Amino acid sequence: CPGNGICKCRVCECFPNFTGSACDCSLDTTPCMASNGQICNGRGTCECGTCNCTDPKFQGPTCEMCQTCLGVCAEHKDCVQCRAFDKGEKKETCSQECMHFNMTRVESRDKLPQPGQPDPLSHCKEKDVDDCWFYFTYSVNSNGEANVHVVE
């Protein structure tokens, strides 16, 4: 019972937080905790202290790695474009699809929020439908509200 229980009559009696016939399965979920505070990033189950990713796109020790997923910038590019500049692929559906973030316009790139604030921040540089660059930041605060700052 590798130190996780007591052997009585050839059967392991496990200490708290261990299970299995040989007490080799830890019930501690700490190693499964993703950076967002969810067990296995909400994309898997924690079994014996190890994530079993149930969403096939996600892998890694806490199911946070996704090779095929769009980054934050690419994911929100179309919505930022239609909200800020009234153009792009989602122009017609903007009011239905793109109201999930608060948007603030700033005059120049140096007025964008800078790293060092309490909320995780992504700096984005994307091309619009006219092949021009536009710049924005995307962050999510502790209340789960998404905030976008976009350069006019």
Automatic annotation (TrEMBL):
Pfam families: EGF_2 (PF07974), Integrin_B_tail (PF07965). GO terms for molecular function: C-X3-C chemokine binding; collagen binding involved in cell-matrix adhesion; fibronectin binding; integrin binding; laminin binding; protein kinase binding. Keywords: Disulfide bond, EGF-like domain, Glycoprotein, Membrane, Repeat, Signal, Transmembrane, Transmembrane helix. One of its GO terms (cellular component) is focal adhesion. SUPFAM superfamilies: EGF/Laminin, Integrin beta tail domain. One of its GO terms (biological process) is integrin-mediated signaling pathway. InterPro entries: EGF_extracell, Integrin_bsu, Integrin_bsu_tail, Integrin_bsu_tail_dom_sf, Integrin_I-EGF_CS. The keyword Ribosomal protein does not apply. Residues 73-152 form the Integrin beta subunit tail domain. This is ITB1 protein. It comes from Orthonyx spaldingii (Chowchilla).
